[in-house]
Design goal:
Layout lengths: L7 E9 L6 H10 L3 E10 L10 E3 L2 H13 L7 E4 L5 H17 L4 E4 L4 E2 L2 E2 L5 H9 L5 E2 L3 H8 L6 H13 L4 E4 L9 E10 L2 E10 L8 H15 L4 H22 L18 H5 L8 E5 L1
Parallel strand pairs: 1-2, 1-4, 4-5, 5-8, 8-9
Antiparallel strand pairs: 2-3, 6-7, 9-10, 10-11, 11-12
Length: about 300
């Protein structure tokens, strides 16, 4: 890929010294797929929080301001994408919005991809004050949102008990200004299954895509960060073909999880043994083998 056509991404999310979560999960796949990635770490921790001892630092909004001011002064503020993940404080999230507004002034065509990391399985693991900020300040600006089922409920205030509820919640985000919503995981499938759902606005119509996949018998960390980065990459590389992008994202993620489980076979499912095998999955990232086909429909 010629240098002048290489898409540039600014990724703002968490970082760990050991393991794969946040930027450690997102940057490598994006680079493999041909993207230039600059990244700012919202937190820097020794490991993710499933380990028994977690130490590190949390960036404050002034730290983000200082880093971004340096980029601006050096003329390095032209990006094709802004990707955001875990943010631990309301003030930091507000500063991200200011960064996005500047990036949009520098490149009106920039695409904002937001993984609204707030919680999972009914448990909130960020300050409650972040929820209304995502609802009121981030959703109207984001082009692509990748919440899980619980985060979709938080963003909309809707209780999601079935697939119809999920589509209604997604429509609510469309009405608030977000063009594409991809629910990375939901418990709306049959027993032992997960359901991924995605929707994008095309003028007056809405394309809906869904994929059913089997649950893995383990708890992984960092999968949402990989998912968001892959969706960004494949939406770009397929000219926003939602069906193909979701199929390739799911294919890659399933291959990574299968390899992670294979490497952990016969071992206890500790955080260390279940760290994602990203490096070992290089070929699956570059050339995913699609096994699960997506269902696709159009709603007027």
């Amino acid at each position: 890929m010629a240098e002048e056509t290489t898409p540039k991404i600014l990724s703002i999310q968490s970082h760990v010294v050991h393991g794969y979560v946040g930027n450690r999960s997102a940057v490598f796949p994006l680079q493999l797929l041909g993207f230039e990635v600059d990244f700012i770490n919202s937190v820097q921790l020794c490991t993710h929080t499933q380990y028994k001892k977690v130490t590190g630092q949390i960036l404050k909004e002034q730290d983000l301001t200082d880093l971004f001011e340096g980029l601006k002064e050096n003329g390095l503020d032209k990006y094709d994408y802004l990707l955001t993940g875990y943010v631990g404080s309301p003030s930091f999230l507000k500063e991200i919005l200011e960064v996005y507004k500047h990036l949009k002034s520098a490149n009106p065509g920039i695409v904002f991809v937001c993984d609204p990391v707030m919680g999972d399985n009914g448990q909130l693991y960020v300050p409650e004050e972040l929820v209304p900020l995502y609802q009121e300040c981030i959703v109207p600006h984001a082009h692509i949102l990748t919440p899980n089922q619980y985060e979709l409920e938080l963003l909309t205030g809707f209780k999601i008990s079935n697939v119809d509820d999920c589509w209604k919640a997604i429509e609510n985000l469309h009405m608030k200004g977000c063009k594409t919503v991809v629910v990375s995981s939901s418990d709306l499938g049959k027993n032992g299954e997960l359901l991924a759902l995605a929707s994008t606005l095309n003028g007056e119509s809405c394309q809906r895509v869904s994929i059913t996949l089997k649950k893995k018998q383990a708890i992984f960390v960092g999968t949402g960060d990989v998912f968001a980065s892959l969706m960004l990459a494949w939406m770009h590389k397929t000219n926003n073909d939602l069906k193909v992008a979701l199929e390739r994202t799911i294919a890659t993620l399933q291959a990574i999880l299968d390899r992670t489980l294979e490497c952990a076979k016969g071992k206890p499912h500790t955080p260390e043994n279940l760290e994602l095998k990203l490096i070992q999955s290089k070929r699956d990232i570059e050339k995913p083998q699609v096994i699960l086909s997506a269902n696709c429909s159009t709603r007027q």
